Amino acid sequence: MASQSKKLGPIMLVVIVSTLLFLFQSSRVSAQSPASTTQNPVVDAEPLLFDSGAAALWQSLQKLHTRASLLMVTAHPDDEDGGMLTYEARGQNRGEGGANVMSSDYFDALGLVRTQELLAADRYYGTDQFWTRVCDYGFSKTKEEALEKWGHDRVLADVVRVVRMTRPLVITSVFVGARTDGHGHHQVSGQMAQEAFKAAGDPAMFPEQLKEGLRPWKPLKDYARVPFIPVTEKGIYDYADGKYYPA
User: Fold this and answer.
1) 53: helix, strand or coil
2) From 128, 139, 160, 235, which residue has the greatest number of CB atoms within 10 Å?
3) Which tens digits make up the pLDDT trace of 11-48?
């Protein structure tokens, strides 16, 4: 789950699901392969000039004009809408199961690399990041398969917890929870964004969180990106299982 200050990963949210990803502002980070022979990995994320001095002060003053906050929910470290997050924050995965053509890192090593890359990118976005407890077990053909492996309430509880922690006015998601999202992880992230929008404000949902000191929170609006999959005479094509479905 990807959260964005000012304005949210299996794998997800915050909620971008290797763990639902949530978006955030992190400290200086770097990625390093387990096979590396040095203890001094190179830091690739360079400091931004407008995060210091007069420019940084100007940004801070601008943010005093609004109490708006936005939480983006998505699935993997390459699913977040970086342009939109940066615009909202500055102008207004872990990913163990992915593919890799840049190096020989796979599985756990790839998950570490993708996580560090995302944390570094969050500094440029100007966002804060949160993760759910579920892992990216590999390509998932359906939402039902992902929920069976992860557990519906387990994922929803993680997303609701972040909503109650960050108390955003708006929840947004890259996916909508349907076939147009592609594979199962994407679909779950879209569904969780919509369910959390309602569940976070219901004191009967996950009362153990309230005993820990969190309070119910009802965001004002919930948005999702319009699906961009073409509609054909056969319907919409789901690349995850290679079948067509009614639009």
Assistant:
1) helix
2) 160
3) 344 433 333 433 333 333 344 343 443 444 444 566 76
Strand partners for 4: 70
Question: b/e per residue, 14-42, with b = 16+ CB within 10 A?
Answer: bbbbbbbbbbbbbeebebbeeeeeeeeee
Q: How far apart are CA 153 and CA 18, in angstroms?
A: 17
pLDDT tens sequence across 88-112: 777 664 455 555 555 666 666 776 7
Q: Which CATH number fits domain 2-245: 1.20.120, 3.40.50, 2.60.40, 3.40.720?
A: 3.40.50
CA–CA separation, 7 vs 56, rounded Å? 17
